[in-house]
Amino acid sequence: MAHVDVFDPAMCCSTGVCGTSVDPALAQFAADLQWLGEQGVEVSRATLSQEPAKFLAAVPVREALSAQGEAALPAILVDGQLASTGRYPVRDEMARWILTGGMTATSALVGQALPVAQSGGCCGGGGTC
């Protein structure tokens, strides 16, 4: 079974989907992670403000933070390997990463690219909750 670990920047809640002005990109990413789970992928998510020890324990994330600072976040690991830093990937990217690792998913869903909204919501764009 494939495993995806998401290391989010410091946010006011665990998903960033909170407050009165929710960033659409964060809401879409949460839906995409749910979709991955429905495809049999194990997904875990850590937020810097709530679980900093997990960031130190994950060597690729720790190295990315050392090299890029907080600009490396969000960082995405797929089966322990760094797949993405500094942005939330769209569903078709994540599906390709998982399929490359051998997971058998519904291929009709793989090509469903979803737009990435500009950050600016409560937790994802520097606003306050």
Describe this protein with a few key phrases.
4 strands; globular; single chain; Glutaredoxin; 16% strand; 35% helix; disordered C terminus; 4-stranded mixed β-sheet; alpha+beta; 5 helices; 129 residues
Mean pLDDT: 78
Supply the number of structural domains.
Answer: 1
Percent range of helical residues: 25-40%
**Main sheet summary:** 4 strands, mixed
Number of helices: 5
CATH topology: Glutaredoxin
Which consecutive residue ranges, at least 5 long each, have pLDDT under 50?
102-129
CATH classification class: Alpha Beta
Helix and strand run: EHEHHEEHH
Shape descriptor: globular
Give the helix/strand class: alpha+beta
Distance between the termini: 36 Å
Strand content: 15-25%
Summarize the structure.
This protein has 129 residues and is an alpha+beta fold. Helices cover 35% and strands 16% of the residues.
